[in-house]
Design brief:
Layout: E1 3-9, E2 12-17, E3 22-25, H1 40-62, E4 66-78, E5 86-98, H2 102-116, H3 118-125, E6 129-138
């Protein structure tokens, strides 16, 4: 896996992935940014949510659950000193579907957290306390 990050001026950067996608990153105005994109640490948090959500959807589909929507709401705390690393992250999954079994969702969350999510594993091995919970919503 490769990526290229190109400086755009001030504290803005364009990242290009080897799959051909681009993301703009920018700093806060207080650091000379123009708010043209997400902050790099926000992208790490979003990546964690995407990685875990990918697992949840894949596992639930394999379990033949009729899932119509999955949302992952993340809340993170950071150290107050530099480097301001993540210290705690909580992932809350909202799984919507028809007759989705709570037991299957619990198993999917557990498998993602303990076995499949590379981002979660990397962050937790780096000392970040990661917790999870979920709710199941019946689709209308």
């Amino acid at each position: 896996m490769q990526s290229t990050v190109q400086w755009l001026g001030n504290v803005a950067f364009e990242a290009k992935s080897d799959s051909g996608h681009t993301v703009i990153m920018d700093g806060a105005p207080s650091y000379g940014g123009e708010n043209r994109g997400a902050r790099p640490m926000e992208l790490i948090l979003m990546g964690l949510g995407g990685c875990a959500s990918f697992d949840i959807v894949t596992i639930l589909k394999k379990a033949r659950q009729d899932v119509t929507d999955v949302q992952c709401r993340l809340q993170a705390d950071r150290a107050e000193t530099v480097p301001a690393v993540f210290t705690k992250i909580h992932l809350h999954f909202v799984v919507t579907g028809r007759a989705v079994k709570e037991k299957q969702v619990a198993k999917a969350v557990e498998l993602s957290a303990e076995k499949y999510c590379s981002a979660s594993k990397m962050l937790s091995d780096g000392g970040v306390e990661i917790t999870h919970d979920f709710e199941v919503v019946e689709a209308e």
